[in-house]
Amino acid sequence: MDEKLKEMTFKYAVKNAAEHLGKADLKAVIGKLVAIDKELGKNLGKHIKEITEIVEKVNAMDKKTLEEKFSSFESFNELPEREKKEEMFLDWADKQRVVTRYAPNPNGPFHLGNARALLMSYDYARKYKGKFILRFDDTDPKVKKSIKEPEKVFKKDLDWLGVKVDETFFASDRMEIYYNYMKKIISMDKAYVCKCEKEKWKEKIDENKSCKCREKNSKEQLKEFEKMLSHELKEGTAVLRIKTDLDAKDPSLRDWWAAKIVDNPEHPRVGDKYKVWPSYNFASATDDHEMGITLIIRGQEHAQNAEKQKFLYKYFNWVYPETFHTGRIKLKEMVLSTSKIKEGIEKGIYFGWDDPRLGTIQALRRRGFNPNTIKEIIKEIGVKSSDVTVDFSRIVDVNKGFIDAKSDRYYFIEDPIKLEVNFVPEMQIEKPLHPDYPDQTKTYEVSKGTQTFLISRKQTEKLELGKIARLKHALNFRVIRKDEMQIFGEFVGIQKLENKTLIPWILKETSAEIMMDNAVKKHGIIEKEILEEKEGNTIQLENFGYARIDEIEKEKIVLWFAHK
Length: 564
Known about the structure:
Glutamyl-tRNA Synthetase, domain 3, CATH 2.40.240.100, single chain, alpha/beta, 6-stranded mixed beta sheet, about 575 residues, 7-stranded mixed beta sheet
């Protein structure tokens, strides 16, 4: 163990002890160390003895010494994130405040793919002591309609990821602001109300020609726009367009639409109050200026939108924010499209946004992934304009480093069968809660005589009459009889045997239901001691995988499978 790691261990052991009545919790300290240094998680076994000794040393301190040590530390910054790479340096941050935003369409909770823009925007705002804004882009009341109360849904995911929002806005609350800017730009003769049929307008624009609507003066245009606002003009009969370069090489940049009419809007926040709705580009550009955004991190698919929005910035003489466009995150094993997920839920393919087959933050959280895993993956990807395919096995490897140290071990048996062992002496059996913490065990009292254990039916295939087998961490027995319902054996000792299959067993059981990653439920039994755990804890089911405790009932426990 290097000196830096020893220093860190001592520091966080003191902090934990000071916050918990003078006694540091070994697992809590290890969890903190692993969260800071991912390499430690991979090699924990090498350092566990020294870490334990340091924690014990801290726990032996008297109250006064502990308080003095705690007070002597200037800070508890999570310093040595080893091999951390700075992907982007803002050389202007000392002259201008860094203000970032995350602007999701709240038509569904966010997922691993769009969490990239969120976490990077938040990290840069915090790194440069700036401001982070959450702006819900809920200006589509027809196709990608907002879910109800998205702020409550998003808050759970944001809190879990440790993201603290400085200000929250809803685009639908800012409609009058957009209308004012629309009127201004019309008055500047930089926008017009187009009443042409869509196909005929496209024919003109493809020929680099203007339509007749474009030639009207600004006073006439304002009158037409008022007709849009009063709903005298109906859906599909008129749109507001921004005048751009008709000779632009990219046809999509030519006179892009800024607002359209929706006859029967169904908006969960403002109902049918507004009939004219801004485009993404108009609302986003306006708000980025109004909110003082200086740094935008968003997907590469918005690079073209940035070029459209720059026309507004030019006309209004605004300064466009520094912008980084990142590639898409692709995850082979999971769906990362909000629209596809929503469609799948509506068709009954998925049972909800937290269906374990999905890559939503809700699903990953419920399965027992650690929030630091998501952050670590995003950091590894960094700011890249190219698409990135993330192998789920990499996410699993990172997650193991964060959850293994605090995941106690239990046995889960899907298809149990009784094993009755005769001539057992009165004894105590100790099972370790975790292989790295040999001093932390579960103790079982066994009475003299016959003892019944529950084992997996599959294990009985390995048992031969007259042969000796071993129950893991417990005792040895000779098989004397087998049938479809039960196995019978006799006690032959407790000493460890070489080259013997170790059979998992349960003495006292409770029912268990496990939601698997393919959304199929498995049922069986699990050690009753698990009922003493807390909901939300992660555990490891030996020879099965990691899982999160979702619900604890009186005689049943519900788990969600995380991964192997």
